């Protein structure tokens, strides 16, 4: 195909493949659901709001301590990194799973970060890594075991989860290379080259070098942790391929990975399975964390 711009796709096809919003009739109900559920968690659970983990105004998190009788000297923590194509949402829509997790003896930290285009993707990645490092150094003050940190995220948050798993950043933050002991990536983006060629680059301003720096597929760690990679059945072929490719690369290194599609979920509601331990994804994620 003479007008192909990426992997045999022309510009129109590529743009369609990376337009997640077009896979649902209306995005607003999902965002409203995230916000409502998260507000309910803040209202009903013990929580520490707007805990600063860095110097900028955006670098805050909400921490929900685990429920009674966590195992070990402290509870494991699930660090959730929200999606929104790196330019929307916040921690305020990101703690909907806190009730189910704290009941299971798992603390939750919903991470906030500055959004593009006000900051670069390099800075967004740095902030998410800083949040993980802060919990390693300070989590014990909130009843958290720093040796049982699990990171998860959806869409752009799946990408940022991959960047927290990536090699090469730990020494700068004073944390061990295996600081992340497990991860869950929902509908993530792990090779950013097609993103450079589509609409999101209007606010990301990626070039070849920033794509290379920030593509988790090209920065796999030397030691991998248990990983769940998942996506909804109605997602585009490219979102599915990105997840499969990342899971395959993880497996080829001999790292433990569970990779599957959730047929009755879409790009935006799959993450809500975390609220329900009777759903496979909620059950698997809780089991992964409790097994550390």
Explain the overall architecture:
This protein is α/β, with parallel strands linked by helices. The chain is globular and about 60 Å long. It has one domain (11-290): Rossmann fold. It has helices at 11-17, 28-44, 98-103, 121-138, 156-165, 170-173, 193-196, 201-204, 208-213, 237-252, 280-290; strands spanning 48-52, 60-64, 75-81, 107-111, 144-154, 180-186, 227-232, 257-262. The mean pLDDT is 96.
What is the number of strand segments?
8
| Helix/strand structural class | alpha/beta
Low-pLDDT runs: none
Number of domains: 1
- Quick one: overall form? globular
Give, in spatial order, the strands making up the sheet with the most strands. 1-2-4-3-5-6-7-8
- Total DSSP helices: 11
CATH superfamily: Alpha/Beta hydrolase fold, catalytic domain
Round the mean pLDDT to the nearest integer and report it: 96
Beta percentage is 15-25%
Distance between the termini: 49 Å
CATH top-level class: Alpha Beta
CATH topological fold name: Rossmann fold
Helical content (DSSP H or I, runs of 4+): 25-40%
CA-based gyration radius: 18 Å
What's the helix-strand series? HHEEEHEHEHHEHHHEHEH
What is this structure's SSE topology?
Elements lengths: L10 H7 L10 H17 L3 E5 L7 E5 L10 E7 L16 H6 L3 E5 L9 H18 L5 E11 L1 H10 L4 H4 L6 E7 L6 H4 L4 H4 L3 H6 L13 E6 L4 H16 L4 E6 L17 H11 L2
Parallel strand pairs: 3-4, 3-5, 5-6, 6-7, 7-8
Antiparallel strand pairs: 1-2, 2-4
Helix pairs in contact: 4-5
């Amino acid at each position: 195909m003479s007008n192909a711009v990426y992997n045999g796709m022309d510009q129109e096809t590529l743009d369609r493949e990376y337009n997640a919003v077009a896979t649902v009739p209306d995005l607003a109900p999902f965002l409203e659901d995230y916000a409502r559920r998260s507000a309910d968690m803040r209202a009903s659970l013990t929580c520490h709001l707007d805990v600063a983990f860095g110097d900028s105004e955006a670098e805050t998190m909400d921490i929900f301590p685990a429920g009674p009788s966590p195992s070990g000297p402290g509870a494991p923590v699930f660090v959730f990194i929200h999606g929104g194509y790196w330019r929307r949402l916040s921690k305020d829509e990101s703690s909907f799973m806190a009730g189910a997790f704290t009941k299971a003896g798992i603390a939750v930290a919903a991470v906030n970060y500055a959004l593009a285009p006000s900051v670069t993707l390099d800075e967004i990645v740095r902030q998410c890594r800083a949040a993980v490092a802060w919990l390693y150094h300070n989590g014990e003050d909130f009843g958290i075991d720093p040796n049982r940190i699990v990171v998860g995220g959806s869409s752009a948050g799946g990408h940022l989860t991959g960047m927290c798993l990536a090699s090469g950043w730990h020494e700068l933050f004073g944390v061990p290379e295996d600081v992340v002991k497990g991860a869950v990536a929902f509908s993530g983006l792990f090779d950013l080259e097609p993103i450079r060629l589509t609409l999101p680059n209007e606010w990301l301003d990626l070039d070849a070098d920033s794509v290379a720096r920030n593509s988790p597929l090209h920065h796999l760690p030397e030691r991998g942790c248990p990983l769940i990679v998942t996506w909804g059945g109605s997602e585009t072929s490219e979102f599915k391929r990105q997840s499969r490719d990342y899971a395959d690369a993880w497996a080829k290194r001999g790292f433990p990975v569970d990779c599957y599609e959730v047929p009755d979920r879409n790009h935006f509601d799959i993450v809500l399975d975390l609220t329900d331990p009777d759903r496979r994804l909620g059950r698997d994620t809780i089991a992964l964390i409790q097994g550390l």
